[in-house]
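User: Structure please.
Assistant: Input sequence and predicted structure:
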Amino acid sequence: MINNHYGIIGGGINGLSVARQLLLDFPESRVTVFEKEVEVAQHQSSHNSGVVHAGLYYEPNSLKARLCRRGAELVKHYCLENNIAYDECGKVVVALNEIEEKRLDILYQKSIANKVPGVRMLNAEEIKEVEPNCIGTKALYSPHTAIVSYGDIAKEIAKEIKQKGGNIIVGKKVVNLTEQNKKVTVHFSGDDYHDIDFDHVITCAGLQSDRLAANSGDIATPKIVPFFGQYYVIDETYKEHVKGLIYPVPDPNYPFLGVHFTKRIDGQMTIGPNAFISLGRENYSGKDYNLSDIYDFLTYKGFWKFSSKNMPAAMRELRTVLSQTNFVQEAAKYVPSLENVTVTPATRGIRAQAMETDGSLVDDFVIRKQGNITHIRNAPSPGATSSLAIAEYIVREVMTPQ
């Protein structure tokens, strides 16, 4: 594998991390990254909360749990080594009633199993010691949960790739891959770029991962169903009401974490995100729509099965989409002093949620190798936290002959 030529499809943080890892492990190899946009990290890598997740939520022994813990350590070291802002602000997951307390106990057990450092349970009085304006009956405290800018990390990795002799080609959209005689051919849209052969190709296509994989001979499922999440920045004069991160206890019947308070690396405080179906896989403005993307999820039976099972939660989320007041009130359940705070729209992210035909959501990372092609089929949150660890896993375990 030393002198191979590797192609990476996708210039987000996962694709760039894989390219970097290849150059670290095989410095004599050739590595080329293809990104359809004119710059790297233009999609999920720069439209997210910036949280370095500690591993509270994930099933012990799952790929998510393992790679999140390893990834959090690698992100911290990478930021410190490259002078990238890193703030270990801490996080509380807050219960408001007995039902949520029972769910919180389960999270705590997962945290212990996943060896999350420093986690402990807080009673109502102890919550005030961490977050003076927060109310709750019980909370799970993760003091080492941190925040960063993943966009900044991705751009630093891109610089490192070029310094190590790698090549990043932007503005070139890959439509499919074919493999013959152990060579993988990358095919591009348009006539201005010729097909290129590689020894190995890794696709890290995010919101387009299912389409590229299926067009390249992989199975059709899981399919990506896009859900948007809107963030709002609160009035700056109130930002000190929250010290770090305040999260609700997640509903096990709904895959998203709920509206929460998230400190940004620039010092601002945000509320968000909600979670609702997006009218386009790359509709970050919220003002556009993509008929092909809409057709894709409306004709997918998995989407309708998921919707039928999650209607109450979907209606709750819809209220936050339609009304900023409802949005703020959801968050103010935890910090009542911010009930009437004014907010300004900020980042709008889109989650590439992998969904099966029975309506179930794929909970773990899905990384699949077929011949000399490796597809990342599912890497939602904590995908950014795990990116450097995902790269290690792909290069050292998935691609390396056992």
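The first strand starts at residue 5 and ends at 9.
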